[in-house]
Q: What sequence folds into this?
């Protein structure tokens, strides 16, 4: 792919992401749901297992995540979702919003401010 085609594709992807984000925010506001953004950098490469937190590009291989440090294995997107949830709770903790004691519910469990994950029964 030429440099120009690559830049065009990248611009389109950025536009598409911004458009999806705009639509989510619009619909959320309509239903009284608050939307917060979290920096996604390296969330699919960071191990979210306990205290590990090891980040390396080789931790992820397509849909598979296996931490090179502790050996934890998960679906890569699910690992990233847990990291995004943890970052959001960390943002709440730093902001003093009073929500830092909250837990974020994921389909398979909850993530707390200290990064602990508790699986659903």
A:
């Amino acid at each position: 792919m030429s440099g120009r085609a690559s830049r065009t594709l990248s611009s389109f992807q950025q536009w598409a992401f911004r458009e999806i984000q705009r639509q989510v925010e619009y619909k959320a506001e309509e239903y009284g749901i608050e939307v917060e953004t979290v920096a996604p950098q390296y969330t699919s490469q960071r191990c979210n297992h306990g205290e590990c937190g090891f980040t390396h590009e080789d931790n992820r291989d397509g849909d598979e995540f296996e931490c090179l440090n502790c050996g934890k294995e998960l679906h890569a997107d699910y690992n990233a979702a847990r990291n995004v949830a943890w970052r959001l709770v960390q943002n709440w903790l730093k902001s003093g919003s009073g929500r830092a004691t909250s837990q974020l519910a994921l389909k398979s469990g909850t993530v707390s401010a200290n990064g602990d994950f508790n699986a659903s029964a």
